[in-house]
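TEACHING EXERCISE
Course module: macromolecular assemblies
Task: Read the component lines below, then compare them to the predicted structure of the full complex.
Student: A.B.
Group: 4
Components provided:
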Amino acid sequence: MSMSRTKERLVVIGGDAAGMSAASQARRLKDPDRLEIVAFERGHFSSYSACGIPYWVGGDVDSRDRLIARTPEEHRARAIDLRMRTEVTEIDVGRGRVRARDVDSGAESWTSYDKLVIATGARPIRPDLPGVDAPGVHGVQTLDDGQALLDSLAATPGRRAVVVGAGYIGVEMAEAMINRGYEVTVVNRGSQPMATLDPDMGRLVNRAMEGLGITMVNDAEVTKILTGDGAGRRVRAVGTDAAEYPADVVILGIGVRPETALAQAAGLPLGAHGGLLTDLAMRVRGHENIWSGGDCVEVLDLVSGRMRHIALGTHANKHGQVIGTNVGGGYATFPGVVGTAVSKVCDLEIARTGLREKDARRAGLQYETVVIESTSRAGYYPDAAPMTVEMLAERRTGRLLGVQIVGREGAAKRVDIAAVALTAQMTVEEMTALDLGYAPPFSPVWDPVLVAARKAAAAVAKAPR
Amino acid sequence: MSMSRTKERLVVIGGDAAGMSAASQARRLKDPDRLEIVAFERGHFSSYSACGIPYWVGGDVDSRDRLIARTPEEHRARAIDLRMRTEVTEIDVGRGRVRARDVDSGAESWTSYDKLVIATGARPIRPDLPGVDAPGVHGVQTLDDGQALLDSLAATPGRRAVVVGAGYIGVEMAEAMINRGYEVTVVNRGSQPMATLDPDMGRLVNRAMEGLGITMVNDAEVTKILTGDGAGRRVRAVGTDAAEYPADVVILGIGVRPETALAQAAGLPLGAHGGLLTDLAMRVRGHENIWSGGDCVEVLDLVSGRMRHIALGTHANKHGQVIGTNVGGGYATFPGVVGTAVSKVCDLEIARTGLREKDARRAGLQYETVVIESTSRAGYYPDAAPMTVEMLAERRTGRLLGVQIVGREGAAKRVDIAAVALTAQMTVEEMTALDLGYAPPFSPVWDPVLVAARKAAAAVAKAPR
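Instructor-supplied answer key:
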């Protein structure tokens, strides 16, 4: 390890989770005499929890500032030169510099780097539809987006919200708008919400959402967004080929794509999902002094062996930690993901990890699927709530491939058992012997995950080889 | 595999979790033409949840019968000849028979077996103290014990309860008596409750119990139980050398020992903790046709490599399942435990798995211990509750050795993450990359277990090698 004493400059593009975690960790390892850190953020906020936006909009979190983990001033106090409202418009890899533009003044300048971190995040998918840019149509990807939505709600008397899309953002925003007292319609291209679940589990979510008074419109492709005739030409409805759904506000929750236009223009390697490709140290492939992490990269799925794009704050923070350690002269890697995600709609908890049936098929795997019903606590204990667990195991090997859980209190975080088992490449037979916490207030004597593992092990044993 | 067509007889001693799980599983695999099953239970109840007794006594569970998973009649309907109130008084290994006595009539008879399952459970430790057999002094090991306690409470106007011992049973019974409106004093030999935790974590439990209005008397050895002068000579106080604690009822929660007097008399192998020793198929060592499981056996601790005695319904059920499979002609093993246990005192959740510091020292391991404070949910999310996590990791290897968690909602079952990681022999560094479920209602962006793993990994890296 060379111990250069010359001062280097680290440039970070993006002031949220991955970028600022990387900057902070690098700063912990190298002081300002040895490493200058300049970070650019085009928005108004740094280091905030984008995942918290639905709860802020819905009123569970009372103020925007509570979502901010560290303000620009706090970063600057740690000798990180964070330049807000400053958008990087070009990466010049050959000369090791970036061009940045002050969003307000339009002034541009070049900043050279010795080391570069690209943490440009993701952008919400905005379908190319007539009317999609009308006032009252909102994404909820950034804190700026969330503020714009709240301002829009405050300015509009109507109480009808249409959410387009029924993935995590869609269902969380549906809950948020129900909590705000809106009539909510979810228009969803798939045949049930939560395409990250297998269809039978998604149907449980659909039923629960309808039970909350949300109008679910599945198998429906939005083809147009209709606007009013007034001066503002504000949104008035969402249209499919079959119907129109009146809307005072429209929230786009269709999903996100890696924000990699800059990286692509600079000739950096992108994967099939449009995300930057890195090695396990989060170094951009083929570029010794460029790292990338967070919502703009693709990650290795340890179960299928394929690359995926997953926009999730917990990964972004881990990436930032790994990048900062490596930039700061240490060594760390991010081995990959198993695809864990948890969510809720009011008191319905939703969790998944590993492969769905369609992922397993796509990866060429043969598998057995079992579904069991159990309860969150001993059946005789107060508030024992039903829980449905689906488990996939590979034929022959019996290796755990995936778990999905839908239930009430205590359902979501149980998926962590499977997340660790997937990481350890356990078989479902091995899982039947897991020494999981048992006491009547916390679990039946056979934890629901153990019940599923027993049934999956039996299915594997009986399956044709 | 030989497929004998002659009819065999399986005798089961003990009609609770391990014994009846074994009987039921054996019955699933072999029909009555091939396997006769006779089971003996000395009490009034079969297949009940002993772990549920504190919640029944405390009023959370409204009826005794709700704790019964399967009645004697239900077992008999499945062709299991379950003989209640019938105590086995001798095992004659040489001639393959057991002697049983009808508890009510005193009549005795011999029953021969081809295969034997010993599931005699555990008995509560009753210290050899003056007065310990007085009316008003109760154990809570069996459903019969629980009924006797409730009858005793109904017959006594006083509202002062003294709980002797502060392990799982002690703290759960302290909660139960608080819930019944009693003034509760816990007299505990150790310097804090929950000796299954390291002292710093036990002190958190102590503080919480005091906060609930429970009088905690630690470092106190009970030397006598004082009785009244009335006709019944009912208990009136618990005495130590230093003080007396007035009591209208006394609950012994000192712990349990394997109930192996019968096995010992028959010359079967016992371990250092007094439990039967079996192989991993739960077959009693050296005895081809005798199996044992549940609270009367010792189990392998997969972390320390030592044998332990752990009385816990979830292990008993697994043992029964394994025994029944083997008795029924299949193949199954119980690989061992990692020592997971969860409990609660009102809304304080308590969890542990793996080794405490003193276990690690005893096993000759060098280790690093870290303690972190975090929250159950994102800090900005409503009802985010504090959580303390202690983590032990082995020096040099970085292997996870143990985790203890004390907190509010969401604390206890988080220990399952560590239970699986221990089983998989993960290092704390590997754990830092675990893909655990994250969403603001369920976890901070770094789950508390990940925060502890990061700190533990750093401690291992810095420790002398």
